[in-house]
Amino acid sequence: MAKPDNRGRILTQTRNLKMARSAHSYVRGSTEKFYEWLEDSSRGELPEGPPVWICGDCHVGNLGPLADAKGRVLVQIRDLDQTVIGNPAHDLVRLGLSLASAARGSDLPGVTTARILEELIAGYQAALSSDFEMEQDKSNRPESIQALLAQSTRRRWRHLAEARLDAVKPTIPLGKRFWALRPQERKALSQMFSNDAIRSTLTSLRGRAKDDSVELLDGAYWMKGCSSLGRLRYAALLRIGNRKSSSLCLVDVKEGVAAAAPSASKVEMPRDNAIRVVTGAKALSPNLGDRMMAARLLHKAVVVRELMPQDLKIEIDRLTRQEAMSLARYLAGVVGRAHGRQMTSSQRRAWRSDLAKNHNASLEAPSWLWASVVELIGLHEAAYLDHCRRFALSEAA
């Protein structure tokens, strides 16, 4: 278990190790570099879509099944740290790069990457053409997504506790992932959860009573994820209700920081980074956004959300050609619905028309998408190898 004074060093080492595991892992952990390279790119001029809330970090691992406040499950965007009001084309390029990187990691031929991007655009355009008055997702789900949704809907509290805490007891076990709190951190968490605004949101979920009490049972610093390493990140175990009729819940508390994703010009967004994240989540992923709260902790903006047993992320190990293509179409549809529900019907038609331009005779994906993803794959590959070299040298020192 790490001592509080050693957190920074261990977090940096862990981030470097995670990003060195594969080129796909490096893509997931290099959001800032993605936008730096995209801005410097001399090829693939991006079209300007209607300014809407975008994910800003739209890779495969940031999509997956999410439960709403009543436990109903849909596949939506599950991480909104980078959300801004921006160009929806940025999410398409980021998702295309992620899928292309996964295809390379699966030893699929280059022509499959071209087909993946064609399916991505087709799925996104189809989503923009859908009926936004209907909440139901009628898109064809790949078998892997069907299986993940089936697993998600079967999960209960014990599954969440076993996966996150390695136990079902009402404690957070300290060790590799969870570290002891400083006294001031524990006090600050306790005070935050006594706030009426936080309590009212927590008690509104899953049929709880509005007057239920909220008690902090345990808390820990949480070492989790590449992009969140080095920020405030806590796990809190709460009891909601009285002891005769109560439920346990696990809450994720994450510091909100400035987004690397560029925002559209002349748009107004919340200056508080936690409020920005919650606002973007409500627009893009209602299942998640409706159970998120913005708060202050230790003089910093934090996002607070209850973790549901049904929340899962899409994990890619090896993909076949057909799996890669069907996954690209489906996930692009998820993103298209997230963007499209924020647009008027005329904006959707115009944006769909813009996306249909700039095709060539041999490729159905627009040239700007193909050129951007191809150039970014090369840049990421070189940066990934250099990261591995520097990490190996630092380990040997």
Q: What's the SSE blueprint?
A:
Blueprint: H1 7-20, H2 23-28, H3 31-40, E1 52-54, E2 63-67, E3 73-77, E4 84-86, H4 88-105, H5 110-128, H6 143-154, H7 157-165, E5 178-179, H8 183-193, H9 196-203, E6 214-222, E7 233-242, E8 245-255, H10 273-284, H11 286-289, E9 292-297, E10 300-307, H12 321-340, H13 345-355, H14 367-396
Antiparallel strand pairs: 1-4, 2-3, 5-6, 6-7, 7-8, 8-10, 9-10
Helix pairs in contact: 1-14, 4-5, 4-12, 4-14, 5-12
Oligomer: single chain
Largest sheet: 6 strands, antiparallel
Instruction: Write the element-wise H/E pattern from the N-terminal end onward.
Output: HHHEEEEHHHHEHHEEEHHEEHHH
| Number of DSSP E strands | 10
Low-pLDDT regions? none
Number of helices: 14
Structural domain tally? 2
